[in-house]
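Q: Sequence in, structure out?
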Amino acid sequence: MWVEPLDNGKFKFCERYKDPLTGKTKKVSVTLLKDNKMTRKDAAAILAEKIAAASTPALKHENITLGELADLYIEYQAKTVTKGTVKRNRSTLNTICKMLNPAAIVSNLTAGYVANNLYSTRDKASTKNERLVRFKSFMHWAYDNDYIADIRWIDKLKPVNDKEAKEKLEHKFLEREELNLLVNSMKVQRWKGLTQFMALTGMRVGEVLALTIVDVDFRNKKIHINKTLDAQIKSDVHSPKTSCSNRDIDMQPELESLCQEIKKDLNARRFKTGLRLRLFFCDENGDYLNYYAFNKYLKKTSEDVLKRPITTHVLRHTHVSLLAEAGVPLDTITRRVGHEDSRITKKIYLHVTERMKEKDKELVRSVNLLA
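A: Exactly. Output:
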């Protein structure tokens, strides 16, 4: 620090510092009436505060409200994620903002206030936990983009106990007998074929609904997966979930046979209606099938036949279990279903293979070789 006497009799106390953003040397100063031991001490403290303030990036909006921040977040997401994701996130964020008060100043939020308002509803534990996950992602984005200075308090927010989520592993996939029972009980041929196809490929439902006729390559006996359909926005067809989701699936004989049946039905419909069909699975007008209609039928039929509702994801997990039962290595299964690293895929694989080992042990124990 140095002192510069001024013509008016006052004194300017100065200090240099390096701008962390540009690396250039800058100067701060403060003018005081006197130059003595006490004023030098005061000047040093004031200059230190000025340097700290200048070295710390300022928040974009000091008093931004939750509602304003949510609008900015959705605006950002519209440029970076799919339309379906934006729609889901907007709906969830609108609910969160109403629960926490859209006029609340973001920097004034506390863990106690957020928990009290997010957890006070009668919604399912899974719904509350989903909101919490979305809220934390929202706050992390705000912190990363300098809309809030400190978010350490969100670590105090813990998910509520979800007993329903602790579902038995066996309920996450179907046994071979259960799958056959389900399929044979289906009266609507369109949904029956779709169920069989999903169980034989392990594809995500969006990937199946987005398949075109040319994606099913009979010549090379492969199914080319390079896009997915968003269930919420029918026309939103985009790249698959992850980079490893872009893949080719080899057709085993029973899958090829099913695909030939579907192709035969498409040709018959094309001849009868004159429609230029493009999709491998389509409705009467050649348009994308309705995911919700399929899910409703699947749920109702499984409740009637298996006494428990299943989702399309259960069919995907069923494919994993059937391959594991057939002795297909985990790495091969993972590549086929388009996973980089899936905890549930590994759990199902280990569960099935361990069960097979136990059956082998029982078989050996019951054998008398010399009798």
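The beta strands are 2-5, 11-18, 25-32, 216-217, 222-225, 228-229, 237-238, 247-250.
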